[in-house]
């Protein structure tokens, strides 16, 4: 796998939303990768997103171009060759950069490189890592992650209904999953199920075409329309023991995976804020009312400055979260606070930025409507604000308020 970096990449002019020049915290090589991703999203993805968002389809022709981008394996030491593993700050900023153009593309990477690959990287033994991760890092194999169920979201830890039963050298899975991104076209799906024998949650890699595994695309969404979420039915699906993630022994292990990916959602929320703010700032400078640009109106400037303040505060929080991750000392409550806080501020920013567009803000042609709608999905998944608030509340008070 080779990232197609030009011989000499000039760093783009600082982002309008990077008021404190936070990107300068990245070392030169990592900043070059970020700039490369930015150029790719601008030239290859942005021209397509509104068309496919309106159709509610994932642009499959982009997968080959994402493969050439060569950044899917950056988070994983030894599986991103020839690139070294990137810092958590780089990984977060890449997610931010993808989302700054299109939240659906960021979710494609988040599901594949984050949830699916990290499940195998963290939960698989060495043989399983070597079997799947190189082709996943090269995007020759596309992954998905199936945990949420039709009747279980926030309570999935204790209420998972999908079951696994050992049958000789195989496991038999039965149940259903819902809201599974990439599942309609993924080559493998990490499915989580409760072992009938010991009641513990275990992970299984189900490969495309396995009998009894049936993903059906969820239609009529008002957000993340490019993401092909699926409802999956598992009917006597046979999975060999060799496809059971060998280092997953309990839901505690699963929670470690979710802790890492939850911080990625916070970075996505930041990316949505950046994208919305930049759109609103550009529009305010160009749109004229009463004979002058609306950027000269005090109330418009107030909306822009409040948005910029949210962006800067959230970005600073996520920089420190990345440092805690790099140091190996971050905890559930750290990622939960980031997810709850940043997505809440994101909701404010996209509303303020859409307001600047007036009536044009509800038309897809101006892009801001897509950011406004997609923000609702980011606000909800990877744990609602309420659930993440209770995780942090328990950490700071020592008292559990969970029902």
List the helices and strands and how they pair.
Blueprint (H helix, E strand, L loop, with lengths): L27 H28 L5 H9 L18 H14 L1 H21 L2 H12 L5 E4 L9 H4 L3 E5 L2 E11 L7 E8 L5 E7 L5 E5 L12 E11 L10 H36 L1 E2 L2 E2 L4 H30 L4 H25 L11 H13 L4 H13 L6
Parallel strand pairs: 1-4, 2-4
Antiparallel strand pairs: 2-3, 3-7, 4-5, 6-7, 8-9
Description:
- There is one protein chain.
- The chain is of the alpha+beta class.
- It has three domains: 22-137, Acyl-CoA dehydrogenase/oxidase, N-terminal domain (Butyryl-Coa Dehydrogenase, subunit A, domain 1, Orthogonal Bundle); 143-243, Butyryl-CoA Dehydrogenase, subunit A, domain 2; 251-395, Butyryl-CoA Dehydrogenase, subunit A, domain 3 (Up-down Bundle), CATH 1.20.140.10.
- Helices cover 51% and strands 14% of the residues.
- It is built from eleven helices and nine strands.
- The strands form two sheets. Strands 1, 2, 3, 4, 5, 6 and 7 form a seven-stranded mixed sheet that branches. Strands 8-9 form a two-stranded antiparallel sheet.
- α4 (103-123) packs antiparallel against α7 (251-286).
- The longest helix has 36 residues, at 251-286.
- It is globular and about 80 Å long.
- The model is unreliable at 1-12 (pLDDT under 50).
- Residues 254-396 form the Acyl-CoA dehydrogenase/oxidase C-terminal domain.
- GO terms for molecular function: acyl-CoA dehydrogenase activity; flavin adenine dinucleotide binding.
């Amino acid at each position: 796998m080779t990232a197609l970096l030009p011989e000499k990449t000039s760093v783009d002019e600082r982002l309008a939303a990077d008021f404190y020049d936070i990107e300068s915290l990245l070392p030169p090589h990592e900043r070059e990768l970020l700039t490369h991703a930015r150029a790719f999203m601008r030239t290859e993805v942005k021209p397509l997103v509104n068309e496919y968002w309106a159709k509610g389809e994932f642009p499959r022709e982009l997968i080959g171009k994402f493969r050439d981008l060569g950044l899917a394996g950056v988070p994983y030491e030894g599986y991103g060759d020839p690139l070294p593993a990137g810092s958590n700050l780089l990984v977060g900023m890449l997610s931010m950069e993808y989302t700054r153009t299109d939240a659906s593309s960021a979710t494609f990477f988040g599901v594949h490189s984050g949830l699916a690959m990290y499940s195998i990287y963290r939960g698989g033994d060495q043989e399983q890592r070597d079997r799947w991760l190189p082709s996943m890092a090269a995007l020759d194999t596309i992954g998905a992650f199936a945990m949420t169920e039709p009747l279980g979201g926030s309570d999935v830890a204790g209420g998972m209904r999908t079951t696994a039963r050992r049958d000789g050298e195989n496991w038999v899975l039965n149940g259903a999953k819902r809201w599974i991104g990439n599942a309609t076209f993924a080559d493998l799906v990490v499915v989580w199920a409760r072992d009938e024998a010991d009641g513990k949650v275990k992970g299984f890699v189900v490969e495309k075409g396995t009998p009894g595994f049936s993903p059906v695309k969820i239609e009529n969404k008002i957000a993340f329309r490019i993401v092909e979420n699926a409802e999956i039915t598992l009917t006597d699906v046979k999975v060999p023991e060799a496809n059971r993630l060998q280092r997953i022994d309990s839901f505690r292990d699963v929670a470690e995976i979710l802790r890492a990916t939850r911080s990625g959602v916070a970075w996505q929320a930041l990316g949505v804020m950046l994208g919305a703010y930049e759109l609103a700032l550009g529009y305010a400078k160009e749109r004229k009312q009463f004979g002058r640009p609306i950027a000269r109106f005090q109330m418009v400037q107030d909306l822009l400055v409040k948005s910029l303040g949210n962006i800067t505060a959230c970005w600073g929080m996520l920089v420190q979260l990345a440092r805690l991750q790099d140091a190996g000392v971050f905890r559930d409550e750290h990622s939960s606070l980031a997810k709850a806080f940043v997505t809440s501020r994101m909701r404010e920013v996209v509303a303020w930025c859409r307001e600047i567009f007036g009536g044009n803000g509800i038309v897809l042609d101006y892009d801001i409507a897509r950011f406004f709608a997609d923000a609702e999905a980011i606000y909800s998944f990877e744990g609602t604000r309420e659930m993440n608030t209770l995780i942090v509340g328990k950490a700071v008070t020592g008292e559990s308020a969970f029902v």
